[in-house]
Amino acid sequence: MRAVVVHAGNVALQDVPQPIPAEGEVLVQIRLAGICSTDLEIIRGYAGFNGTIGHEFVGTVNGGSAKLAGKRVVGEINCVCGKCDMCSSGLSSHCRRRTVLGIQGRPGCFADYITLPEKNCLIVPDTVTDEEAVFTEPLAAAFQVLRQSKIEKRTQVAVIGTGRLGILVAQVLATTGCKLIAIGRNERTLALLDRRGIRTALAGDTQLKQDFDLAVDCTGHPDGLRIAMGMVRPRGTIVMKTTCKADHAADLTPIVVNEISLLGSRCGPFNEALNALARKAVDVSGMVTRTLPIADAIAALKLAEQPDQIKILLKVAS
Ligand SMILES: [Zn+2]
Ligand SMILES: [Zn+2]
Question: Which CATH class is domain 2-135+284-315?
C-alpha cells in the first residue's frame, strides 16, 4: 500500500506492507486525511519520529471488528495500555506506554490503511461529511482548552495565532460567550473568523489592551510564549498549544514576576468534537484550501507550509 514515510528528515511516498490488526484492533481504510502543523514539525525533526506520518483522518473499518465493519469512523490517536498509573488514574492520554498515531511508535494515516484499537474508534454520524469529520482530532485538541480552564462570560480571552489550530480554538472559545479576540497575521483566516462573528485583530495592533485573563498560544512559533506573556494580566493564565523545535528559550521572568499560570495543552475529547461538528456549532468548511490525492502528498506537504494556505486534505479512497 501507499504510505507517506519520514526517515531522517526526508519524506517520501513509498510502497509498504499493509498492516495486520492485532488483538482488539481494527483495520481502517483511510478516506480523507488532514495535514497538521505537527506533521510538518515531525518532518523537521520534532518528536524524533521515523515512519508513516499523519494523525487526522476519517476512514472505513475494513476488518478486525464485526460491530464496526463497513462503518465510517474517526479515531482517538493515543493508543494506551489501560494498566499504568496514568491510565489507572483516568489520565490515559498520558499513558506511560502509549503509542500515538503517526507521532510516536505507531504508523500514521497518510497511507491506504492503518490499524487502531477498536475502542479508539468513533462512528461518524451520517450528517457529518468526510470533509468535516477529518477535523475531529484537531477540534478535540481545541476543546481541551475548555476542559483545562474556567471560562466565564466576563473572561477576557485572546487567541494568539489564527492558523489551522487557532481558527478552531477561537470558534470553540466563542461557544462560551466569553470576551474573545483572535489575533493573527493572515487576513484570510481573520476574515473567516469575522464571518463567524468573532472579534479579530491583526498581529502588532498596539491598540490592544494587554491585560487578558487568558491567552492561548496557537502560533506554532517559539515566539508565541513571549507574545502571550506580554498580553496576560498578573495572575492570568497562558494555555500553550504550540509544539515546535525551539532553538532558544524565552525569558520566563514575566511568569515569575506576574505570577502567571502556564498550562500545557495537547489532545482533547473526541466525542465533544464530533458532537460539535454534528450540531454545526463549529464551521470547518471554509478552512479547506486544497484537497490533493495522496499520490501528490509531497507537493501537498510543501503547499501546507505556505502562509496563504489553511487546511490541506489528502484524498486517499472514497
Ligand atoms: Zn494534528
Ligand atoms: Zn497506560
Answer: alpha beta
Residues comprising the chain, all counted: 318
pTM over 0.85, yes/no: yes
Range(s) within the chain of domains with CATH label 3.40.50.720: 141-264
Measured in angstroms, how far is the CA atom of residue 92 from the centroid of ligand 2? 6
Contacts (Cβ under 8 Å, ≥6 apart) of 48:
none
Question: What are the start and end residues of each CATH 3.90.180.10 domain in the chain?
Answer: 2-135+284-315
CATH architecture, domain defined by 141-264: 3-Layer(aba) Sandwich (3.40)
Which ligand is in closest contact with the Cα of 57? 1
For residue 79, which ligand has an atom nearest its CA? Answer: 2
Separation of CA 220 and ligand 1 centre (Å): 12
pLDDT in tens, 5-52: 999 889 999 999 999 999 999 999 999 999 998 999 899 887 789 999
- CA 148–ligand 1 middle distance (angstroms): 19
Alpha helices, H only, the chain:
37-44, 85-88, 130-133, 136-148, 164-174, 187-195, 224-229, 253-257, 270-278, 297-304
> Residue 291 and residue 311: Cα distance in Å, rounded?
9
Rounded distance, CA 132 to CA 146, Å? 21
CA of 93 to the centre of ligand 2 (A): 8
What is the Å distance from ligand 1's center to 137 Cα?
7
Ligand 1: centre distance to CA 55 (Å): 6
